[in-house]
Amino acid sequence: MKYSYYPGCSLERNAAAYNVSTLATAAPLGLELAELDDWNCCGATEYISLNLTASFALIARNLAIASKEKGRAGLVAPCSACYLNLRKCDKYMAESSKLSGKVNTALAEGGLAYKPGTVKVRHLLDVIVNDIGYDAVASKVTRPLSGLKVAPYYGCMIVRPEFNGEGSSFDDPEQPVTLDRLLKALGAEVVPFPMKAQCCGGHMTQISDSSAFDMIRRLIKGAADNGADTIVTLCPMCQLNLDAYQGGMNAHYKTDYKMPVLYFTQLMGLAFGMDASRLGFGSELVDARPALAKIGVETPPPPEPPKKSKRDDKSLPMPKMIAETAIHAGTTIPADSSQTSAR
Amino acid sequence: MSSLQTQARAPTFFDEVVASTPGECHLDQCIQCGTCGGSCPSGADMDHTPRAIFQMIRAGLKEDVFKSNTPWFCVSCYYCTVRCPQEVHITDIMYSVKRMSVKEKGYDDSTAPDFSKTFINWVENFGRSFELGLASMHMIRHNPFGVFKIAGMGVGMVTKGRMAFTPTRIKGMNELKAILTKAKELEVAE
């Protein structure tokens, strides 16, 4: 089936691993993803905080371009925020003729028009589990992810809100299961993860990091306490917050979590027997190699932390800890120093 | 709402919030149960819970609502929205309060509004967002010493090729600018 593909800004760079693994796994699934022509940013959660009409016009430009592309089964967004914004724009334009009129007056300035309801907006996960199906996915598995314990993380914007009332979303808004079932079809062991639909903190890392770290900690701890080897996500914002800010969160709480955060498309590619180098592995900041070693996959190492300049011996003498002095003197330190003084 | 609108009087703060929220937001249906605040992942950091904000809107406490950090701590996760027994579109109302407080410059702390403005500045000029430009410009303005705290992470993002040094510009930038300019005119005209 052929779909218009709206990668979104994150997948161009910070979430490039999601993009390459999506495109790599689409082929064996018979999924044709044609990138939407000259798409623009969806405005994330920022534009609508400042200007309502302009934020909808920004989103609607993409819908207008998509509505001109014929023979497509829908517009697929792999990013949860893009998916939500595109649907939100379509929904409110359909509900309010006043808003729809204004947006179309603005679109006309760029030679475009959009009739609400003409483009079917889908999330990548929805398309894979409902259009392709679990059985079709399972039939492509050549390297089952047996022994890999995964925490399926949905985040918020894929299952919420239910724009057209209860049951209108493709999965449950509080206890979703589609990703669980997909990962099981790949042979992975899905651990219980009650935090699966909680927020990653979104843009709070930029506005109030203590608030963001609190949300990140709950998620990482939740996955670790349930024995997960890795968190599996479907959203670039979730991946960025849990992966890139995990170090900051550890420093903030004096913890030492090392929970890798991978995209479901990356694991799907591995299960299909694809080489890790084709799936964007190695761009994660929290080392995923120990987790992947469990299924016999080797991936490139994560980046080296910046080296601290070593103080050379010619600098001013510094007081040394007992243990350090003892090591330099070539002596061994008794396991319990109180015993030593007692003797 | 319709019963209120039939009365001949100047629009209240409550009316203004409802009018600037797209669709049927059901704010008049709030029963003050507090399910929203209880479901909120960042509720502990808010100076008023969403429930309290709604009652403050009803009471016409415009200045206090604008000064509140509540809408800016909303992470747009829609948990409250799906749980609200009265189907109040809470997240959308938070966005309305943000827009109104920016318009009237009523907010207390400019960190979050400025973040939105910086983000939008890239989008309005390139058509796509630009993470490195956004993060660095925002940090220089609001948290210059924070650069040292996240230096390791930043180096990691760059060495892993996850940060672009230049933004991408869409082909139809002139058309997009024309669209957004017109949309802003229409917003003000209301």
Task: Write a structural description.
The complex is a heterodimer of chains A (343) and B (190). Chain A is α/β, with parallel strands linked by helices and 343 residues long. Chain A has two domains: 2-124, Glutathione S-transferase Yfyf (Class Pi), Chain A, domain 2 (Up-down Bundle), CATH 1.20.1050; 134-293, Rossmann fold (3-Layer(aba) Sandwich). Chain A is 43% helix and 8% strand. In chain A, α2 packs across α13 (264-271), α3 (52-68) packs across α4 and α4 crosses α5 (97-108). The longest helix of chain A is centred in the N-terminal third of the chain and has 17 residues, at 52-68. The termini of chain A are far apart. Chain B is mostly helical. Chain B has two domains: 2-103, Orthogonal Bundle (Fumarate Reductase Iron-sulfur Protein, Chain B, domain 2); 111-189, no CATH class. Chain B is 59% helix and 0% strand. Chain B has 13 helices and no strands. The two termini of chain B are 19 Å apart. Chains A and B meet through α1, α3, α4, α5 and α9 of A and α7, α8, α9, α10 and α12 of B.
Quaternary structure state of the chains depicted: heterodimer
Q: Sum up the overall morphology of chain B in one term.
A: globular
> Judging by the overall fold, what is the CATH architecture of the largest domain in chain B?
Orthogonal Bundle
Give the mean pLDDT of chain A: 90
Backbone shape of chain A: globular
Report the major sheet of chain A. Answer: 4 strands, parallel
Distance between the termini of chain A: 81 Å
Q: What is the CATH T-level topology of the largest domain in chain A?
A: Rossmann fold
Q: What is the CATH topology assignment of the largest domain in chain B?
A: Fumarate Reductase Iron-sulfur Protein, Chain B, domain 2
Which structural category fits the helices and strands of chain B? mainly alpha
Whole-number total of structural domains of chain A: 2
Main beta-sheet annotation of chain B: none
Run of helices and strands of chain A: EHHEHEHHEHHEHEHHEHHEHHHH
Task: Estimate what percentage of residues of chain A fall within beta strands.
Answer: 5-15%
Largest inter-chain contact set: A-B, 74 and 72 residues
Q: What is the arithmetic mean of pLDDT of chain B?
A: 91
